[in-house]
């Protein structure tokens, strides 16, 4: 696969670290390196380990929705897909000012850093 710009007619939110480009789930990387580093947000619904995580997931999803409401966003494909069964493309989404949205979520506390084999505990 070749890295590059992805054109989306619609860009919506699936959860705090997953966007849908024309209905296809894509995983936000937060300027990370595929399979080395990225971002993680709380799990939604039955995937959450506790009520606190479910609540945090809805807050993170809401913040991402606010950020995606901007005009002129750029979705950049890393050239690879994640290792889940869904094979989501790994992407970075940039605002018109050049700020990467996943990195912004990290800075605002809606996301945490991710590394292979690591699971963030949102219930502590």
UniProtKB/TrEMBL annotation:
It comes from Rhizobium leguminosarum bv. trifolii WSM2297. Residues 37-114 form the TNase-like domain. This is Micrococcal nuclease-like nuclease. It comes from the Bacteria. Pfam families: SNase (PF00565). Gene3D superfamilies: 2.40.50.90. InterPro entries: SNase_OB-fold_sf, Staphylococal_nuclease_OB-fold. SUPFAM superfamilies: Staphylococcal nuclease.
């Amino acid at each position: 696969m070749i890295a590059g710009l992805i054109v989306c007619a619609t860009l919506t939110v699936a959860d705090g670290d997953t966007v849908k480009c024309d209905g296809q789930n894509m995983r936000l990387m937060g300027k990370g390196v595929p399979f080395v580093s990225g971002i993680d947000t709380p799990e939604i619904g039955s995937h959450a380990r506790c009520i606190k995580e479910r609540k945090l997931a809805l807050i993170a999803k809401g913040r991402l929705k606010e950020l995606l409401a901007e005009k002129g966003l750029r979705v950049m494909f890393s050239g690879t897909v994640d290792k889940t069964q869904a094979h989501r493309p790994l992407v970075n989404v940039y605002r018109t000012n050049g700020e990467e949205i996943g990195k912004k979520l990290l800075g605002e506390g809606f996301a945490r850093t991710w590394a292979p084999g690591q699971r963030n505990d949102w219930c502590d």
